[in-house]
């Protein structure tokens, strides 16, 4: 939630804790990549994004289109979808995720 509200510093603290507790979960890595990109730390964002791609055996992090096709919180209400577009997806693009 912190990430969607652009409360980047708080999001990073919690996402780093989640990554440390469960290092094999790709979603923690992708959300951390997004948060780092939002803060302008593109190299760190790219590193986390690369690790999320490596960990996700189903290829969901190969592109924005693939990720959108996977059921997730971005399928929610229009306001929630708009927040994901403005933060999560926009920042994953900055971290190097292609559209297709």
Q: Features of this protein?
A:
mainly alpha; 100 residues; 64% helix
Radius of gyration: 12 Å
Helix content: 55-70%
* Number of domains as seen in the coordinates: 1
Give the rounded overall mean pLDDT: 90
Oligomer: single chain
DSSP summary, beta strand count: 0
Structural class, by secondary structure, is mainly alpha
How many alpha or pi helices? 5
Report the major sheet: none
Distance between the termini: 26 Å
Q: Pick out the low-confidence regions.
A: none
Order of helices and strands: HHHHH
What general form does the structure show? globular
Strand content: under 5%
Description:
- This protein has 100 residues and is mainly α.
- The protein has one domain (8-94).
- Helix content is 64%, strand content 0%.
- The protein is built from five helices and no strands.
- The chain has helices at 8-21, 26-38, 42-55, 64-69, 78-94.
- The longest helix is centred in the last third of the chain and has 17 residues, at 78-94.
- It starts with 7 loop residues before the first helix and ends in a 6-residue tail after the last helix.
Brief summary:
With 100 residues, this protein is mostly helical. The protein has helices at 8-21, 26-38, 42-55, 64-69, 78-94. It starts with 7 loop residues before the first helix and ends in a 6-residue tail after the last helix.
